[in-house]
Write a sequence for this structure.
């Protein structure tokens, strides 16, 4: 099975690798295993073709089972990382959280790693700081109101960043309250990573804090539809 690797570099487990909103559905594939020889051994090789072009790291999990003459199965599982680019970009907030107190600087640490997870130098990385505005669009299905979220991103800062092999590079900006996203890109390899954070006091509920729209409420009443959440 091929799936996203939640911890691609254990020594940098608190860094984000790849674009934060990128998704991938695990891909399960069947493998034809050869019969064992007279010594009871067999060698299995796997060619990973048609891999998706993602920024987030992937890992392959291989499960092999062997049946004894009695019919009892013996199985083993092996996981291996998949590296598609010569470097990976890791992003981290030094405080280890996505919240920045109002009035404090928003700090970003950036590392560049080789496929084995060792830090390397990377020059000419492009960084971008974007402010996010979350919008919620309501629609009705069989009289039930549902919503889809949409994020509008507005660039507010950009530049070039050099990362050394001796430690993370740092960026720092003082920002007004709101939601933001850092993005760092290596044009040569196509590696990209992003990290979301917010400035100021914020509460994340189980359901998004969707603003009440009087227009949406009055319209739904006029056409005798189910009343959307938040309408009185």
């Amino acid at each position: 099975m091929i799936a996203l690797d939640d911890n691609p570099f254990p020594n940098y487990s608190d860094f984000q690798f790849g674009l934060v909103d990128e998704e991938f559905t695990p891909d399960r594939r069947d493998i034809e295993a050869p019969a064992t020889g007279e010594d009871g051994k067999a060698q299995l090789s796997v060619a990973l073709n048609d891999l998706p072009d993602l920024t987030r790291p992937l890992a392959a999990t291989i499960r092999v089972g062997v049946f004894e003459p009695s019919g009892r199965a013996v199985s083993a599982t092996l996981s291996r990382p998949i590296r598609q680019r010569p470097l990976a970009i890791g992003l981290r907030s030094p405080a280890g959280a996505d919240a920045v107190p109002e009035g404090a600087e928003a700090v970003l640490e950036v590392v560049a790693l080789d496929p084995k997870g060792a830090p390397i130098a990377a020059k000419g990385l492009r960084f971008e700081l974007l402010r996010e505005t979350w919008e919620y669009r309501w629609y009705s299905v069989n009289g039930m109101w549902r919503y889809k979220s949409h994020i509008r991103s507005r660039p507010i800062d950009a530049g070039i960043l050099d990362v050394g092999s001796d430690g993370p590079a740092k960026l720092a900006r003082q920002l007004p309250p709101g939601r933001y996203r850092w993005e760092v890109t290596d044009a040569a390899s196509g590696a990209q990573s992003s990290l979301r954070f917010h400035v100021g006091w914020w509460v994340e509920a189980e359901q998004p804090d969707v603003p009440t729209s009087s227009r949406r409420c009055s319209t739904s009443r006029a056409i005798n539809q189910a009343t959307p959440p938040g309408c009185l």
User: Anything to note?
Assistant: Residues 158 and 201 are 25 Å apart (CA to CA). Confidence is low (pLDDT under 50) at residues 203-209, 211-225. DSSP finds one helix and twelve strands in the chain.
